[in-house]
Amino acid sequence: MEIKQLVSGGLLGILLLSFSLPCFITSSALQVLRTPADTVEQYLSSHNRERAKLGLRPLQWSEKLASYANQWANQRRDDCALIHSNSNYGENIFWGSGRDWKSADAVKEWAAEKQYYNYQSNRCVQNHDCLHYTQIIWKQSLYVGCGRVTCRSGDTFITCNYDPHGNVIGQKPFR
């Protein structure tokens, strides 16, 4: 009987510890990983400027997407390779060399693909990419979160994730 009570009391203590400890760690981790307000504003204003030109609803910032983007960017730290994460989110990736690239620089590069998108045919001009641009202006995308890392080479890797994802085959980004 005494052993049973000791074991059950010990298990209760372990269960309480296991339930309270993750809450503490998660709470602390969120504070550390929270994107600075000025960085959020740079990403949002760059994206939403393009969307406003078409009368589209502004994107909202998602810390969940930003956390995912930062995790992926950190995985690219060693090689800075333009490799997509293969998630269920929409994703734009950027690589820059030779200077300290900012969030607005990446979004500006993606938005510059506008000239290669033909709305009537819903296609990119031959031999040009435009899918970064169409993801930015995808009407059904409501949230964005981005991450940035300086790679070991000194280059910059920036990624933005979108939810819901855009670039759905057979659909136009807006109507």
From TrEMBL:
<dbReference type="InterPro" id="IPR002413">
    <property type="entry name" value="V5_allergen-like"/>
</dbReference>
<dbReference type="GO" id="GO:0098542">
    <property type="term" value="P:defense response to other organism"/>
</dbReference>
<dbReference type="Pfam" id="PF00188">
    <property type="entry name" value="CAP"/>
</dbReference>
<keyword id="KW-0732">Signal</keyword>
<keyword id="KW-0611">Plant defense</keyword>
<protein>
    <recommendedName>
        <fullName>SCP domain-containing protein</fullName>
    </recommendedName>
</protein>
<comment type="similarity">
    <text>Belongs to the CRISP family.</text>
</comment>
<keyword id="KW-1015">Disulfide bond</keyword>
<keyword id="KW-0568">Pathogenesis-related protein</keyword>
<dbReference type="InterPro" id="IPR001283">
    <property type="entry name" value="CRISP-related"/>
</dbReference>
<feature type="domain" description="SCP">
    <location>
        <begin position="38"/>
        <end position="170"/>
    </location>
</feature>
<dbReference type="InterPro" id="IPR018244">
    <property type="entry name" value="Allrgn_V5/Tpx1_CS"/>
</dbReference>
<dbReference type="InterPro" id="IPR014044">
    <property type="entry name" value="CAP_dom"/>
</dbReference>
<dbReference type="GO" id="GO:0005576">
    <property type="term" value="C:extracellular region"/>
</dbReference>
<dbReference type="InterPro" id="IPR035940">
    <property type="entry name" value="CAP_sf"/>
</dbReference>
<comment type="function">
    <text>Probably involved in the defense reaction of plants against pathogens.</text>
</comment>
